[in-house]
Write a structure and sequence with these properties.
two-stranded antiparallel sheet; elongated; Four Helix Bundle (Hemerythrin (Met), subunit A); 6 helices; mainly alpha
C-alpha cells in the first residue's frame, strides 16, 4: 500500500543520523528531519483519530495546529519520535479496520469526507514530506564530507 510505503520512508529518514543531525535546521521554517517524523505522527492523529472518532486534538494528545507539530521538545529523541510515529501508524490502521473507502468520516474540520479522500490526502502529504526529507538528508550527509557520508 502506498500509504504504508510513505510512512516507512519518512520514519527511516533519520536512519544512521546523530541526534544533532536529525534536529538540524537547514531552512527558515521549523522543518527538520526529526520534526518531519513528529509532524507525520500529528497528521496520523488528525486524519485517523480526530476525523474518525471525533475526539478533540487535546483529548488525543496532539498539538492544536500543524505548525506546532514540528516543535521538538528537549526530551524528544530519534528513538522516541520514531516509536511514537510507528504507534500512531498502527493505531491508524486499526481505526480503519472494517471501514470502506466510501465510508464517511465526520470529525475533520473540513466537514464530512469519504475515507478514500483521507487516504489520498495522506499519500499526497506524506509523499511531499518524503521529498522534503530526501533533500534535508542529502544536505546533512553532504556536510559530513565524502569520507563520512
Amino acid at each position: 500500500m502506498f500509504l504504508d510505503d510513505h510512512r516507512a520512508a519518512l520514519n527511516a529518514c533519520v536512519d544512521g543520523l546523530t541526534e544533532e543531525e536529525a534536529r538540524r535546521s537547514l531552512v527558515p521554517s521549523r522543518t527538520t528531519l526529526l520534526g518531519l517524523v513528529k509532524h507525520a505522527t500529528f497528521v496520523e492523529g488528525v486524519w485517523f483519530d480526530e476525523a474518525i472518532t471525533r475526539r478533540s486534538r487535546s483529548e488525543i494528545g496532539i498539538p492544536a495546529s500543524p505548525d506546532e507539530s514540528f516543535i521538538l521538545d528537549p526530551a524528544d529523541t530519534i528513538d522516541s519520535i520514531r516509536a511514537s510515529h510507528q504507534r500512531a501508524c498502527a493505531a491508524s490502521r486499526e481505526a480503519t479496520t472494517g471501514l470502506g473507502l466510501e465510508d464517511i468520516v465526520t470529525g475533520n474540520r473540513r466537514g464530512p469526507l469519504p475515507l478514500r479522500w483521507v487516504y489520498l490526502h495522506m499519500i499526497r502529504e506524506l509523499a511531499q514530506h518524503c521529498g522534503h526529507a530526501d533533500i534535508l538528508r542529502e544536505q546533512i550527509l553532504a556536510a559530513r564530507g565524502p569520507e563520512n557520508s
